[in-house]
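call fold target=EP15R factor
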Amino acid sequence: LIFQVDPTYTGRVGASEAAPFLKKSGLSDIILGKIWDLADPEGKGYLDKQGFYVALRLVACAQNGHDVNLSSLNLTVPPPKFHDTSSPLLITPPSSETHWAVRVEEKAKFDGIFESLLPVNGLLSGDKVKPVLMNSKLPLDILGRV
């Protein structure tokens, strides 16, 4: 990631390079401003490798609903997500409409289905899972990605 904003390996990422990159996170300018201030506490106007790391960690925290502050750096969060379809290194964050979680009452049902397929060492082969997924009636291109 740092190569994308520091292609000449200067070890520094200036605000003019970092800002467009960080905007791809989908966070507001206010949140990004807080992140920059924490990542560049001395107001140097650029981020070194450590500062860039802090910025990325804070982006991940903000994307996961945590406060943007230094104590959030210790939280376990998934990597930050950036919207950029031109780069395989960056992934598009899911929209709020696609956010999902298995409800408690559904878990037992899904556990039963999983166990009925006779997993070996806790794993199922694609051959065993395919018929169940085909029953979902999802389009084949979606199932292929699953």
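return ok
Residues 87-99 have pLDDT under 50 and may be disordered. Residues 104-135 form one domain.
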